[in-house]
């Protein structure tokens, strides 16, 4: 089996994984584009729990999660702020550098399934291999 076959098999296995009663394939189909990207305030995302991802030229570059009361809006607001604990890492730095050209997509997770968000983020990183999520 060649490298390409192994990679396809791994991808197929990931997509068939079930997280909170849904396959990763189903979760991955539910990403929504958000107008205004990372530069906008996004008050409409207050209380929306789930994942957000940065897409550049069709490639997923970074994935972040929001599990707290203020939801994705708070996480995005922290990215736009000055570097501090929790937003000073390599990925956040790259987001700030490219904020004006990144596409923002979100994946809403129902409040009853917030326990799944960490696992979902981890598997999405495995699936999409975002360049800026690599530990430095």
Question: How would you describe this structure to a colleague?
Answer:
The protein is built from five helices and six strands. With 136 residues, it is α+β, with helices and mostly antiparallel strands. The chain has a four-stranded antiparallel sheet with strand order 3-6-4-5. A hairpin with a 2-residue loop joins β1 and β2. It is globular and about 50 Å long. The mean pLDDT is 86.
Highlighted features:
136 residues; four-stranded antiparallel β-sheet; 5 helices
Structural class by secondary-structure content: alpha+beta
Shape verdict: globular
Number of helices: 5
Q: Please give the number of β-strands.
A: 6
Summed up:
By secondary structure, this protein is of the alpha+beta class.
Question: Topology, please?
Answer:
Blueprint: H1 3-16, E1 18-19, E2 22-23, H2 24-28, E3 32-34, E4 50-56, E5 59-66, H3 71-80, H4 90-98, E6 103-108, H5 117-128
Antiparallel strand pairs: 1-2, 3-6, 4-5, 4-6
């Amino acid at each position: 089996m060649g490298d390409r076959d192994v990679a396809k098999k791994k991808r197929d296995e990931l997509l068939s994984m079930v997280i909170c009663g849904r396959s990763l394939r189903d979760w991955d189909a539910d990403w929504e584009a958000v107008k205004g990207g990372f530069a906008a305030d996004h008050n409409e995302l207050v209380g929306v729990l789930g994942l957000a991802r940065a897409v550049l030229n069709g490639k997923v570059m970074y994935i972040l999660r929001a599990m707290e009361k203020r939801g994705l809006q708070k996480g995005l607001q922290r990215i736009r702020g000055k570097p501090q604990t929790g937003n000073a890492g390599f990925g956040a730095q790259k987001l700030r550098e490219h904020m004006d050209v990144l596409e923002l997509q979100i994946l809403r997770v129902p409040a009853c399934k917030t326990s799944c968000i960490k696992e979902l983020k981890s598997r999405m990183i495995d699936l999409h291999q975002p360049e800026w999520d690599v530990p430095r």
